Amino acid sequence: MKRIQIHRYGGPEQMRLEELALPTPGSKQVIVSMRAASLNPTDIKQREGKMWLLTGRRFPRPMGSEFSGVVTAIGQGVTRFCVGDAVLGAVPLRTSGAFAERVMTDENLLVHKPSSISFEVASTLSVAGLAAEQALNKESKLKKDQSIFINGCMGGVGQAAIQLASSIGAKVAGSCRGNAMKRARILGVSDVFDFASFDPSHLRQRFDVIFDAAGKLSWAQSQAMLRPGGVCVDTNLRVGKLIRGIFGGQYKLVAAIPNAERLQKVAELAEKGILAPAVGKMVPLTEGIEAIRDFEKNGGIMGKLVLTNAN
Fold first, then answer.
1. Distance between CA atoms of 302 and 159, rounded to whole angstroms?
2. In the chain, is it the N or the C terminus that has fewer CB atoms within a 10 Å radius of its CB?
3. For residue 258, is it within any domain?
4. Are 164 and 219 in a shared domain?
5. What CATH code is carried by the domain that includes residue 174?
């Protein structure tokens, strides 16, 4: 089988599409034939070595964190899945490996894929969908008629947050690239600002919730936009922000850490048509390295980059 992996931390030049054989699944492990796997900012940070304290220094290191596909083998003790089941899920952070023809993961990181959604959309739920659901439902507890500002609203996480906030009945504002502002309005963002040039100080105390899906705002910028008693939810797990997240009160951090219970929630939201992180571009796994390089260099995708595998 083929898998995208690296032999040292670094830039896009470190990625290789290589042949290897997966071992037999161990206890509570499942092997899935990947149909779709989506790229996340954390995949790039892991490759660059910015998360090495969590990912370790063992190489070769595979890439990719979330995927969908069909079960091809199960290990001892697996009770929730059978060969032939369509599933969606994630891989453990320590091992990764979703950008591959076959993926080995833990049973607790998989749920059954709803038949009403495609493999491509299903591959975006375990990180982007889960991050939006955790931020709006768990951390900020967004309510009907409240106002939310989504920074980076046209990325995969941002668009999922638009969908969920709209379903709750909240008033949605946000920022995105200038060329995506028209699309953001179509999706239901009432007030749209250019991501590159908007001034948070001009939006003083306008919002009940700030969701920084791009992880670019400082606490001072978020605080300026918050109403008294409001909540800021950030996706950037830098050390300083982690400390503020622990002690900050109004400041929360969201990490899309999947398990079966959390994944089932987002799968149900997707089945109801509430949650469907946007797929911006699809390419075969064999063209994945070039597509990731292009994404890092040029950006410009409104939604998720998804690698597909027909086997």
1. 9
2. C
3. no
4. yes
5. 3.40.50.720
DSSP state of 109: G
Instruction: Tokens for 21, please give them.
Output: 């054989």
Q: Is 144 exposed, middle or buried (0-12, 13-18, 19+ CB in 10 A)?
A: exposed
259 domain-assigned: no
CB atoms within 10 A of CB 303: 21
Q: Mark residue 44 as left, alpha or beta (left: phi above 0; alpha: psi -120 to 50; beta: remaining).
A: alpha
Q: In terms of domains, do 110 and 169 share one?
A: no
89 shares a domain with 186: no
Sheet arrangement for strand 171-176: 191-194, 171-176, 147-151, 207-212, 226-234, 251-253
| pLDDT at 16 exceeding the cut of 50 | yes
DSSP assignment letter at 23: P
User: How far lies 270's CA from each of 74, 121, 267, in Å?
Assistant: 26, 9, 5
Domain enclosing residue 223, as ranges:
127-253
Angstrom distance (rounded) from CA 249 to CA 229: 10
pLDDT digits (tens, 9 = 90+) for 130-139: 999 999 999 9
